[in-house]
Amino acid sequence: MDIVVVGSCNTDFSSYVSHLPLKGETLTGHKFETGFGGKGANQCIAAVKLGARTAMVGKLGDDIFGDQYFNSMRANNVNCTHLKQVGGASSGVASIFVGDDGSNCIVIVPGANNLLDANDVADAEDLIKSSKLVVCQNEIPQETTLAALKLAKKHGVKTIFNPAPAQKDFDPELFKVPDFFCPNETEACHILQIFSTNKTLIFASLLLNQLVNDPETAMTAARQLVETRGCNSVIITLGEKGAVYLAGKDAEPEHIPTSPVRAVDTTGAGDSFIGSLAFFMTTRPDLPIEEMIKRAGQIAAESVQKPGTQKSFPFASDLPSHILA
């Protein structure tokens, strides 16, 4: 097995509108569709569509949405040995609004995702220890994510943690255990919105003003994540502005640009990036990490030019041959 993803599965309900609704505003949309989402499953599908051997550890409700999701994952050749349907909770759902400019806002109801626990991770130990990489996000209980990251570390398996959606009360070990800590600019901003105890507020004020939005401020944020949170290495994605990579405490952050494209729907772009990065880490290990990040960004840019989430992720055959070489 190349990749084991421990994370969420959600059914997406996407409404396409002229602009994102304001508080109290009612809009008439021009398109609606359902699809398969959830950050964990998205990243799993992004990797498997490129050709990685991928497994999913997760939970679905024992309902029609769970039935449909399970069948979809199997149809995509995902190893579903540890993807379980359980009673007592609905399958996870996400209500998504997509503006004509490609921007989006999302409300998630986790449902059965919140029932995934450390015992489920322990049950998947043989699968995890036989893999090359474990990928986690923040749409399941933190203790479950931490259990998966620690189990992978115990067996010498590399790990990626994508702290999305972001929150301010992360367990400190979630910064220190994973090999790669991979937020986007907004998530990095939220995570670091904490006043220092000595009342030095310059950096906190910078973040509170939502200024992690270009390579320079992302480099500052990456340094903070390494120096004050103990991250081993950091990749901060910046959408059309590329990404910033910091290899560790004694390294200098690097900006890795990408080519801007006209976005149709940015939903799932970060998941496309993480899944693609996981693909390169496990199937092209001789590539420099900077090149892996560059190519993952190119694949994510391909995905935003189509509507939808998982269905927008390209297959290997959809991409120029040089990207996967």
Automatic annotation (TrEMBL):
<dbReference type="GO" id="GO:0005634">
    <property type="term" value="C:nucleus"/>
</dbReference>
<feature type="binding site">
    <location>
        <begin position="237"/>
        <end position="242"/>
    </location>
    <ligand>
        <name>ATP</name>
    </ligand>
</feature>
<feature type="domain" description="Carbohydrate kinase PfkB">
    <location>
        <begin position="2"/>
        <end position="314"/>
    </location>
</feature>
<feature type="binding site">
    <location>
        <position position="308"/>
    </location>
    <ligand>
        <name>K(+)</name>
    </ligand>
</feature>
<comment type="function">
    <text>Catalyzes the phosphorylation of ribose at O-5 in a reaction requiring ATP and magnesium. The resulting D-ribose-5-phosphate can then be used either for sythesis of nucleotides, histidine, and tryptophan, or as a component of the pentose phosphate pathway.</text>
</comment>
<keyword id="KW-0808">Transferase</keyword>
<comment type="subunit">
    <text>Homodimer.</text>
</comment>
<feature type="binding site">
    <location>
        <begin position="270"/>
        <end position="271"/>
    </location>
    <ligand>
        <name>ATP</name>
    </ligand>
</feature>
<feature type="binding site">
    <location>
        <position position="139"/>
    </location>
    <ligand>
        <name>substrate</name>
    </ligand>
</feature>
<keyword id="KW-0067">ATP-binding</keyword>
<feature type="active site" description="Proton acceptor">
    <location>
        <position position="271"/>
    </location>
</feature>
<dbReference type="GO" id="GO:0004747">
    <property type="term" value="F:ribokinase activity"/>
</dbReference>
<feature type="binding site">
    <location>
        <position position="267"/>
    </location>
    <ligand>
        <name>K(+)</name>
    </ligand>
</feature>
<dbReference type="GO" id="GO:0005524">
    <property type="term" value="F:ATP binding"/>
</dbReference>
<feature type="binding site">
    <location>
        <position position="258"/>
    </location>
    <ligand>
        <name>ATP</name>
    </ligand>
</feature>
<feature type="binding site">
    <location>
        <position position="271"/>
    </location>
    <ligand>
        <name>substrate</name>
    </ligand>
</feature>
<feature type="binding site">
    <location>
        <position position="306"/>
    </location>
    <ligand>
        <name>K(+)</name>
    </ligand>
</feature>
<dbReference type="InterPro" id="IPR002139">
    <property type="entry name" value="Ribo/fructo_kinase"/>
</dbReference>
<feature type="binding site">
    <location>
        <position position="312"/>
    </location>
    <ligand>
        <name>K(+)</name>
    </ligand>
</feature>
<keyword id="KW-0119">Carbohydrate metabolism</keyword>
<dbReference type="Pfam" id="PF00294">
    <property type="entry name" value="PfkB"/>
</dbReference>
<keyword id="KW-0479">Metal-binding</keyword>
<keyword id="KW-0418">Kinase</keyword>
<comment type="pathway">
    <text>Carbohydrate metabolism; D-ribose degradation; D-ribose 5-phosphate from beta-D-ribopyranose: step 2/2.</text>
</comment>
<keyword id="KW-0460">Magnesium</keyword>
<feature type="binding site">
    <location>
        <begin position="38"/>
        <end position="42"/>
    </location>
    <ligand>
        <name>substrate</name>
    </ligand>
</feature>
<keyword id="KW-0963">Cytoplasm</keyword>
<protein>
    <recommendedName>
        <fullName>Ribokinase</fullName>
        <ecNumber>2.7.1.15</ecNumber>
    </recommendedName>
</protein>
<keyword id="KW-0630">Potassium</keyword>
<comment type="similarity">
    <text>Belongs to the carbohydrate kinase PfkB family. Ribokinase subfamily.</text>
</comment>
<dbReference type="GO" id="GO:0046872">
    <property type="term" value="F:metal ion binding"/>
</dbReference>
<dbReference type="GO" id="GO:0019303">
    <property type="term" value="P:D-ribose catabolic process"/>
</dbReference>
<dbReference type="GO" id="GO:0005829">
    <property type="term" value="C:cytosol"/>
</dbReference>
<dbReference type="InterPro" id="IPR029056">
    <property type="entry name" value="Ribokinase-like"/>
</dbReference>
<feature type="binding site">
    <location>
        <position position="184"/>
    </location>
    <ligand>
        <name>ATP</name>
    </ligand>
</feature>
<dbReference type="InterPro" id="IPR011611">
    <property type="entry name" value="PfkB_dom"/>
</dbReference>
<keyword id="KW-0539">Nucleus</keyword>
<keyword id="KW-0547">Nucleotide-binding</keyword>
<feature type="binding site">
    <location>
        <begin position="10"/>
        <end position="12"/>
    </location>
    <ligand>
        <name>substrate</name>
    </ligand>
</feature>
<feature type="binding site">
    <location>
        <position position="265"/>
    </location>
    <ligand>
        <name>K(+)</name>
    </ligand>
</feature>
<dbReference type="InterPro" id="IPR011877">
    <property type="entry name" value="Ribokinase"/>
</dbReference>
<feature type="binding site">
    <location>
        <position position="303"/>
    </location>
    <ligand>
        <name>K(+)</name>
    </ligand>
</feature>
